[in-house]
Amino acid sequence: MIKPSGVLALAISICLFAPAAEAAPDTEWQGLNQQFKDLVQAGKYDDALPVAKHELEIAQKKNDATLGTSLSNLADVLCAKGQFPEAQSYYRRAAAASEKVLGQNHPSVAADLFKVAALFLAEDQAEQAEALFKRAQAINDKAVGSSHVDVAAELGKLAEFYLAYGEAQQAQRLYQRALTIDEATLGPDHAEVAGVLDKLANLTRTENQYAAAEPLYKRAIDIKEKVYGPDRPETAYTLNGLATLYVAQHQYRNAEPLAQRALAIYDKSGNPNDQNVALCLNNLSKISRAQNQIPQAETYVRRSLAITEKNLGPEHPDVAARLNELAILLGSEGNFAAAEPLVTRALQIYEKTLGPNHPNVAATLSNLAKVERALGHATDADAADKRASAITAMKQ
Q1: pTM of the prediction?
Q2: Which of 4, 239, 266, 321 lies at a C-alpha separation of 20 to 30 Å from 68?
Q3: Residue 98: what pLDDT?
């Protein structure tokens, strides 16, 4: 069963943006291959599909290195169109074709194995995915050296795989290795280094390793200000990451100017509905709430909720989180009647997307109990509290 989640997004990203297999020159084939690449780059997958099929027809007659590439190209566009079983079949054929012509340890074989692994990941077949990821990584280590930038990129994707399955320590080690490779090959102030620092800092923060995360964020900001400029969205992303770190530690005075600066950059960039804007607003709402500026916090949460709902859909867990936050703010003002439908909707979203026994469900039930009790609905409040306690006990 394909997972409709961030894991699926990761898999599609790997399939479309992993290094492509190389093929022997051929004028007609090369022209079609370039046309295919241009269409995929533009997101025109329906137009790219017949080009990929024509390209494959030519490659089948040649039966050389172009065959593996053509099979992989067709799989790429099928993956983008959501036709995952067909895509996986073509990736396997591509790997076999490349292995036959180029040998089992050629990078082209690794590229297609990597994509087959990504689709196993999307199908929640973690063991099969991990085995293929590791085999692809081993091929590239041998072919281009364990310190090559392409290996660093694949280490980053492998780290994302482990994160998707809750293996934070393994992911952290892989990001560290990727960082070391990028620093050695690209230089300590390269944009790729900043990108890995971002990921490593975010992961370290979520593991509550706050002291270790802070210098990673600060270094990434320094690099991005040099590479992109101080007022670019790339820089704003890391500014807000550092703000999130400070909010988690209740260092609101440190967090506020960073979040405000990041928000100003995003607003100035001409994309006020970017999801990163919602992340800035989340931090600012928490800061305002801590400073007892409830009306301002409510303004931030409502804007964040609208952006999140537009970008992620009305039944995304992040929407539920914003609904909960807004309900808490309304409750702090004594407006429990307005808070009740918000908490109820948040509960329904969490139950549908995360399951009835998820910790977020328990936390939302506790919020609902408080609201119901404030409204004088003692029976409903007791029922919500009882169910929340049962979920919490189950998880211990």
Answers
A1: 0.70
A2: 4
A3: 80
pLDDT at 246: 98
pLDDT of residue 41: 73
Cα(91)–Cα(69) distance, integer angstroms: 10
Give the whole-angstrom CA distance, residue 355 versus residue 3.
Answer: 14
Radius of gyration of the chain (CA): 24
Cα 152 to Cα 133, 176, 225, 347: the distances in Å are: 13, 10, 23, 41
First-to-last alpha carbon distance for the chain, in angstroms, is 29
Q: How far lies 55's CA from each of 17, 40, 167, 265, in Å?
A: 20, 14, 40, 44
Burial of 1 (0-12, 13-18, 19+ CB in 10 A): exposed
**Positions in the chain whose pLDDT score sits under 70:** 1-26, 121-124, 126, 140-141, 143-151, 154, 161, 164-165, 395-396
Q: What is the predicted pLDDT for the residue at 3? A: 42
202 touches 242 (CB < 8 A):
no
Query: Could you give all domains of the chain from N- to C-terminal order, each with its CATH number?
Result: 1-136 (1.25.40.10), 145-227 (1.25.40.10), 229-295 (no CATH), 313-396 (1.25.40.10)
Q: In this structure, is the dihedral angle defined by the CA atoms of residues 275, 269, 13 and 244, taken in order, positive or negative?
A: negative
Q: CB within 8 A of 340, min separation 6: which ones?
A: 327, 368, 371, 372, 375
Residue-wise pLDDT for 138-182, tens only, equals 776 675 555 566 667 767 777 776 776 677 887 888 889 889 989
Q: What would the two tokens of residue 360 be?
A: 């977020």
| pLDDT at 1 (0 to 100) | 34
Backbone angles phi, psi at 111, to 5 degrees: -60, -45
Whose CA is closest to 217, among 251, 233, 194, 234?
194
Query: At residue 335, what are phi and psi to the nearest 5 degrees?
Result: -95, 65
C-alpha–C-alpha distance, residues 205 and 236, integer Å: 17
Q: DSSP per residue over 3-43, as a string?
A: --SHHHHHHHHHHHHSPPPP----HHHHHHHHHHHHHHHTT
- What is the rounded CA–CA span in Å between residue 11 and residue 116? 9
